[in-house]
Amino acid sequence: MSTSHVLVIGIDGTRLDFLESEPTPHIERVIGEGFLAPVRIEDGTPDVSGPCWATIATGTTVDRHNIRSNDLEGHRLAEHPDFLTVLSRDFGLRTYLAVGSWPPLATTDSHGPVFARPSRVTFAEFEQNAEGCDDGDETVTRDAERILATEEVDAAFVYLGVIDACGHEHGCGDQYRAALHRTDFRIGRLLAAVAARPDRATEAWTFILVTDHGHILDGGHGGGSDAERTAWIAAAGPGIEGGADYGTLRHVDVAAHVYAALGVDARVVLDGKAFASVV
Predict the structure, then answer these.
(1) Which residue has better confidence, 179 or 278?
(2) For residues 81 and 90, what is the distance between their CA atoms, to the nearest angstrom?
(3) Residue 277 in domain
(4) Residue 160: beta bridge partners?
(5) How far apart are CA 84 and CA 261, in angstroms?
(6) pTM tops 0.90, yes or no
(7) Beta 120-123 vs 95-99: how paired, if at all?
(8) Is pLDDT at 56 greater than 60 in this prediction?
């Protein structure tokens, strides 16, 4: 039984400046034990979910995975698979995907899925609006709580989408802030589930929180402004120095760090590298 485990939480459409100014005690706990670093979406990568989540999942740039919009048609994910698929297929590890509000991550909707072959999937489809995404996030959080607390999971990706949905519907105002607070609470429940595992004392867990893109204040993204193209990564775990300066990271670094944290030599092309502090 492996003692190394990774939980990646994807938090869609969360502006870095709002994260830094709003009270988010559970996210702040991860940051306090590790780091928060900005991500600049790379030139040539549209600041929309499809390309950004594919880059995060595969550790490769758009020139390799070829996802350039929220329609994944023409993708090259067979050549550049996601980290959950690689871990389950090539190493026999137990992987888990939980998605409640953006179907292409987990289903064939829009020529998906981004995550092709995880060992286990929780998918709950709701209306693609703020209320539906909130319901979806709550549904998958409940299921992920149970699985993370009681079952063997080596690597997991849990997607939470209500913040982005609120940005689109209402702009980045009070409802956007409230969605950030609800999401932080759900993240706290996921962290508590890991803490409640029977063998937690002997397990080494890495936690990675990542957003795909930002928003303009009036709501929306894809226009190329700094507010839209600024994302972020927060992480804590073995080998991550708390409070260190990790500079500006890249989305492609997430998959590379997942493999490094689990101690596997993934025989796939990677454009990123495991997180390292700036000396």
Answers:
(1) 179
(2) 11
(3) no
(4) 11
(5) 13
(6) yes
(7) parallel
(8) yes
Share of the chain above pLDDT 70, in %: 99
CA 205 to mean position of chain CA atoms: 16
279 located within any domain: no
Tally of domains in the chain: 1
Sheet arrangement for strand 35-40: 35-40, 230-236, 204-210, 4-11, 155-160, 95-99, 120-123
Domain, as residue range, for 150: 4-262
- pLDDT on residue 279: 43
CATH of the domain at 148: 3.40.720.10
Strands 4-11 and 204-210, bridge-based pairing: parallel
Phi-psi region of 73 (alpha: psi -120 to 50; beta: other; left: phi over 0): beta
Q: How far apart are CA 200 and CA 149, in angstroms?
A: 9
Mean pLDDT calculated for residue range 82-96: 99
Output 18 or 217, whichever has higher pLDDT. 18
Sorting pLDDT into bands at 50, 70 and 90, what band is 127?
Answer: confident
Provide the 3-class DSSP secondary structure of residue 141.
helix
Task: Report if residue 278 sits inside a domain.
Answer: no
Residues sharing a CB contact under 8 Å with residue 230, sequence separation 6 or more, in sequence order: 15, 16, 38, 39, 40, 41, 214
| Average pLDDT score, the chain | 96
Q: Which residue type does 203 have?
A: E
Q: What is the DSSP letter of 116?
A: -
Structure tokens at 127: 């209306």
d(CA 178, CA 239): 33
Residue 267 lies in a domain: no
Q: What per-residue confidence (pLDDT) applies to 278? A: 60
